[in-house]
Amino acid sequence: MRLTLPVQTYETPEQWAAFYQRLDERLNAIQGIASVTMTDNRPGGGGVARQLVIDGRSPAAGDKLPRVPVVTVGLRYFDTLGLRLVRGRSFLANDGTTGQEAAIVNEPFVSTYLPHKTALGQRIRLASEDEPMTSAPWLTIVGVSPTVSQNTDGPPQPVVYVPLRSEPTRSVTLVVRTETALETVVPRLRQEVRALDPDLPLFQVQMLDEWLAFTRWPQRVFGIMFTIFAGVALLLSAVGLYALTAYSVTQRTHEIGVRMALGAPPRQVRWLVVRQAVVQLAIGLALGLPAAAIVGPLLPFASHEPVTAASVVPALVLVLVLVSLAASLWPARRATRLDPVEALRHE
User: Fold this and answer.
1) Do 68 and 157 meet the contact criterion of CB atoms below 8 Å apart?
2) Exposed (0-12), middle (13-18) or buried (19+): which is 199, by Cβ within 10 Å?
3) What is the pTM of this model?
4) Number of C-alpha atoms within 13 angstroms, CB side, residue 147?
5) Paired residues of 81 in beta bridges
6) Fewer CB in a 10 Å sphere around the end CB: N or C, the chain?
7) For 30-56, what is the mean pLDDT?
8) Cα–Cα separations (whole angstroms), residue 320 to 85, 295, 326, 331
9) Residue 53 has pLDDT above 80, yes or no
10) Percentage of residues in the chain with pLDDT exceeding 70?
């Protein structure tokens, strides 16, 4: 659920931080709630990109600093989401104060920027485009989190988490892990918020699964649409392949009659026809598969999952092979069953 502090009542970040601390204490004391946390960007909600500097790595003159999404989170963030840190620890109550500047990074961050180093204890700086990097404090990495995708398209990105106490925002998302039904706990949450500020509403109350499904709605729509297009294209390809192969075999009915009249066994004739179809199909696949491997990843809707590609491509190849075999075997089988004299008279 969302919460936005009004400008007239809460003017400074210190007032925001104080309110969030009081609210956190009250909400975590509610019976039936397992854990409560806050964040400026919930999972799938993106993150504010900032420039990154890693201690000990001086960028060369003229080099552009890398940018990483930064998510501000409260205490028990990963516990509330039901996640266990891969290494290190979660944020403590004093993290974010002077002398206790801390950050947590996710696994893609480690593999991208610290592939051959121990991430824990490394120091980083984060600054916006209009902020000098020297004014940003050094943050010590205290933990490595599992991958929680903040973007709704493409592979997971490197993400840095910083304590809400150090960078409070006017608008936050409350993430609540509850042991009771939603309709039971929401009125109690509203009651606790009104106890601190009667004019402060909670809005966009929904289950996390519902929110994630909403963020993925465009991908699902385009995915279904392109699946339909791909199915139609595959059907047209199969029909066209069958028609051309069957027609070419039918055109060889006279030749088949000659071979049968000269004593060629039906099995040998059928293999002759199938072999030609297989050779043509092999040439087409040899040209089409490398072209698809080169062009496919460039498409905006291409799958970024190698497992998906590894399962779909063989299935498509199998369909085309079966269609080609059926288109060559059926007319050839029918032609070999004809009387050789009738086959020789076939136009």
Assistant:
1) yes
2) exposed
3) 0.66
4) 11
5) none
6) C
7) 85
8) 47, 20, 10, 17
9) yes
10) 90
Tokens of 42: 């919930």
3-state secondary structure the chain: CEEECCCCCCCCHHHHHHHHHHHHHHHHCCCCEEEEEEECCCCCCCCEEEEEEECCCCCCCCCCCCEEEEEEECCCHHHHCCCCCCEECCCCCCCCCCCCCEEEEEHHHHHHHCCCCCCCCCEEEEECCCCCHHHCCCEEEEEEECCCCCCCCCCCCCCEEEECCCCCCCEEEEEEEECCCHHHHHHHHHHHHHHHCCCCCCECCCCHHHHHHHHCHHHHHHHHHHHHHHHHHHHHHHHHHHHHHHHHHHHCHHHHHHHHHCCCCHHHHHHHHHHHHHHHHHHHHHHHHHHHHHHHHHCCCCCCCHHHHHHHHHHHHHHHHHHHHHHHHHHHHHHHCCCHHHHHHCC
By C-alpha distance, which of 290, 38, 13, 293 is closest to 166? 13
Give phi and psi for 194, each to the nearest 5.
-65, -30
